[in-house]
Design brief:
Elements lengths: L4 H7 L4 E3 L5 E3 L12 H20 L2 H7 L4 H4 L6 H17 L3 H4 L2 H9 L4 H14 L3 H22 L3 H14 L12 H15 L10
Antiparallel strand pairs: 1-2
Helix pairs in contact: 2-3, 2-5, 2-8, 5-8, 5-9, 7-11, 8-9
Length: about 210
């Protein structure tokens, strides 16, 4: 099945259900349904929404807590700062993406394919905002830097990749995080995935690289 970037950009959005008159209405949750979801999960889901909509600077813990159906002070019992919330939300999105991926979640081909798929559009936008915020906010930078080092060490230790290879792969994923910003080009997603696969093949080629490469 061929999917275009433009089609991907129209797939997200609230679902609707038909009414008796034939019109549609937005489906809603039953009263207090959120209470059955653990507070931390509600906070992270709300944080993803708010950071994607308003960015790090425009987001407030008060608004995140409101959407999570808890009080502002209660949110700080789970996360010390707004930066902690942003990083935790990004980590959760990446865990969801790598869940079930082979080689302990470190198959670069499968990671890239999932990363480019429509269900992870919000996670892509969240990662863009996380790295932008790290350029402006020292506390976000420190948290993100520690995470980068831990993730890179895992790839080097478990797969035997070099730090250069892992860094380049992370840069590739960051570039792909801008996929939705180019949706107006109406490119074929399947064709893009094949090209990214070839880039990954070249990146993790185990043959020695020439000094001039």
């Amino acid at each position: 099945m061929t999917v275009t970037l433009q089609a991907m950009s129209t797939q997200a959005g609230p679902s609707a259900a038909p009414t008796a008159s034939g019109t549609s209405r937005r489906t809603g949750r039953p009263p207090n349904a959120s209470r059955r979801v653990p507070t931390t999960d509600r906070l992270l889901a709300a944080a993803t929404e708010v950071f994607v909509e308003h960015g790090f600077a425009g987001a407030t813990v008060t608004e995140i807590a409101r959407r999570a159906d808890i009080s502002g002070p209660a949110a700080y019992k789970h996360f010390d700062t707004k930066a902690d919330l942003l990083l935790a939300a990004a980590k959760r999105g990446l865990r969801d993406m790598t869940d079930g991926v082979g080689a302990a979640g470190r198959d670069p081909h499968e990671i890239a394919r999932r990363w480019m798929s429509p269900p992870f559009a919000a996670t892509r936008r969240l990662m863009v905002e996380l790295h932008l915020a790290a350029g402006r906010e020292r506390d976000v930078f420190d948290l993100l830097s520690a995470w980068h080092h831990a993730q890179a060490a895992g790839w080097v230790d478990e797969r035997g990749d070099t730090t250069d290879q892992v860094t380049t792969f992370f840069l590739l994923l960051l570039g792909l995080a801008q996929l939705d910003a180019l949706s107006d080009l109406d490119a074929d997603l399947d064709a893009l995935e094949r090209r990214v696969d070839r880039m990954i093949d070249a990146l993790f080629d185990t043959r020695p690289m020439s000094p001039d490469a």
